């Protein structure tokens, strides 16, 4: 057994926490939405207007997983003689595996939603008009790459807390708020806000959801790697 596999097995000791929670969430969201529209029947908008935000439950429910791994399982793994590099590699594999599983799994659920005409009640949970792709694997990329970006970002947050503690999280929040304010101010002063919005609105959805998020993966992934290489046990 290699060190990386050993570290990965430790991270998967509780798959109900590390992997399954987003799937529980999207399942519950589908049940709630289906039940709601089954009750209200045809008294609401037609199918084209029955678009819900229930898909957000899948992404929101996974936010706490990586910080938990960084701050609970990292010292536990070190105590079991897992090397720091092995833990980092195992975490990267886990993030990649979750993204692939999310992409293919949600794309399959999307096909089921289409085949059942909106879960038999003509509603949209996954087949949202602004992210719809005709190709199955393109659809999987649209679902999966944002998952990787979100997971990498939360892993970075967990690493910040691991290295710098509560003050580090506060400083990170202040820094992000300051940079965001400066960027918005520059865009407003140069009257470029509309141009930026138009640029992304004019791009193919595959670029907006599967290409540009990779920049966030690279940014937060690099920061996470640097911090975890120096994290105290």
UniProtKB/TrEMBL annotation:
> What name appears for this protein in its UniProt entry?
ABC transporter permease
Question: Which UniProt keyword terms apply here?
Answer: Membrane, Transmembrane, Transmembrane helix
Chain segments annotated as transmembrane: 21-40, 52-74, 86-109, 136-160, 167-189, 209-227
Q: What is the lineage of its organism?
A: Bacteria, Bacillati, Actinomycetota, Actinomycetes, Catenulisporales
